[in-house]
Design goal:
- The chain is α/β, with parallel strands linked by helices and about 325 residues long.
- Helix content is about 30%, strand content about 30%.
- The chain has helices spanning about 20-25, 40-50, 60-65, 80-85, 100-115, 130, 160-175, 285-295, 305-325; strands spanning about 5-10, 30-35, 55, 70, 90-95, 120, 145-150, 180-190, 200-205, 210-215, 225-230, 235-240, 245-250, 260, 270-275.
- Strand 5 (about 90-95), helix 5 (about 100-115) and strand 6 (about 120) form a beta-alpha-beta unit.
- Helix 4 runs parallel beside helix 5 (about 100-115) and helix 7 crosses helix 9.
- One of its GO terms (molecular function) is nucleotide binding.
- It holds the Pfam family GFO_IDH_MocA.
């Protein structure tokens, strides 16, 4: 494909999140927003007027008019819509989680591989500026602690907290740890809904790394924090505040101007320094969708591939099933 050509793209589902896909795709220079399809006519009309885009009265018409589709529907419809798109040789961006089941995800990946189309999954926290601020550091964490807490709302309660909130952090942990999952221990409770509302998972990897992840949708305040510990370095990330901090040991004097504390009296040439790497200001969803467009053009690869989405789903399902088994 000519990298200068615009990618004709449509959005399937223009609810709470889908409207932001429309907003950004209407502004990305390499994209040409063809139109939208949603089962809710009121939402269709509102989005059409706001962004001056076409409403399609059936999904197939939109698919046939596009090079690529952004799928922002409830998760239970992801597989059916993605398969229809891929069978028509269209690239797909699928909001997280990729599908409800592993078999659905496997089928999508098989079809995409046979068709040669791009599948990207919307794990937006992978593009959080506070996480990307660590790109200049070599991360080899041995212990990771993550908290993702949210106040209760009625939206999204049909999805277990593991597949709604925790899966963000599962994806981040799998990206940070270059090893296979060995064992998982999980527990959780249903508090406000019939589904699991609070969950904790301890994931041990083959190389010995431990990740402890807690997610809740019945907290008083929003919390999205990650701490990672490795040999001679400790990092903290506050995804909400956009704050990244690094504590590490250096030999002799640290970089000029940084606060330093001697490690101990016996190792006077080693110091603990504190760094606050700059966190750039940008919209992660805009960057995510731009990455999708550039991947279609062959300029780069998806930051979160279909396979990545599948692996995060696999671990999330294991955790959820373990919790459900204990609850019953």
């Amino acid at each position: 494909m000519n990298p200068l050509e615009k990618i004709n793209i449509g959005v399937v589902g223009v609810g709470h999140l889908g409207q932001y896909h429309v907003k950004h795709l209407s502004k990305i220079s390499g994209a040409n927003l063809i139109g939208v399809f949603d089962s809710n006519n009121k939402r269709n009309n509102s989005i059409s007027k706001q962004y001056n885009t076409r409403i399609f009265d059936n999904l197939n018409s939109l698919i046939q008019s596009c090079d690529a589709l952004s799928i922002v529907t409830p998760t239970q419809y992801h597989a059916e819509i993605a398969e229809q798109c891929i069978r028509s040789n269209k690239h797909v961006f699928i909001e997280k989680p990729i599908t409800v089941s592993l078999s659905e995800a496997d089928n999508i990946l098989r079809l995409a591989n046979n068709s040669g189309v791009i599948v990207q999954v919307g794990h937006i926290e992978r593009l959080n500026p506070a996480l990307l601020a660590l790109d200049s550091y070599t991360l080899k964490p041995k212990y990771i602690e993550v908290q993702r807490l949210a106040p209760y709302t009625t939206r999204g309660t049909e999805v277990p907290v593991v597949l709604d909130l925790m899966i963000h952090d599962i994806d981040i942990v799998l990206a940070l740890v270059k090893s296979q999952v060995d064992t998982i221990h999980a527990s959780g409770l249903s508090i406000m809904t019939d589904s699991v509302d609070i969950a904790n998972a301890r994931i041990q990897f083959v190389d010995g790394t431990i990740a402890n992840i807690t997610s809740s949708r019945i907290a008083k305040d929003k919390v999205r924090k990650l701490k990672a510990f490795q040999n001679e370095m400790y990092v903290t990330i506050d995804f909400l505040l956009g704050l990244t901090e690094v504590y590490r040991i250096v030999k002799n004097k640290g970089p000029k101007g940084l606060a330093a504390v001697p490690l101990n009296e016996n190792e006077g040439n080693k110091q603990i320094i504190y760094e606050k790497p700059p966190v750039n200001s940008f919209d992660p969803l805009r960057m995510e969708l731009s990455n999708f467009i550039d991947s279609i053009k062959g300029k780069t690869k998806p930051i979160v591939s279909g396979s990545d989405g599948r692996e995060a789903l696999k671990v999330a399902i294991q955790i959820h099933e373990m919790i459900i088994k204990d609850l019953h």
